[in-house]
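Changelog note: in this version the structure field was regenerated for every chain. One regenerated record is shown below for reference.
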Amino acid sequence: NEPVTESTVPYPSGHYAATKGAAECLLAGYSNRFDTLCLRLFHPYGPGQKLPRLIPGLIDKVRNQISIPLQGEQGQPAINPIHIRDLVAWTMKLVEMKTSFTMRNG
């Protein structure tokens, strides 16, 4: 389980992941003509989310006193959730940079 970075070559499994990869390849083909921005978002959360999404699921487990196993190094989470407000602010800053790149938040 190596850390995933922006340069990690994706090996999509399933149709959903494959279409995301195809869209990313298509976007990269235009990066020499105009600025492109590809965000690989992991675990965004915010108002209105319901089960089985990550944050509502964690809240449900806490409320029902169900244990939550941690599976990172030394009990550190292996994910990095981001609130939708922070995601929008982050995206706006990236758009203002006027350059082409791929970035992940996870």
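Spot check on this record: The first strand starts at residue 37 and ends at 40. The chain has a mean pLDDT of 86.
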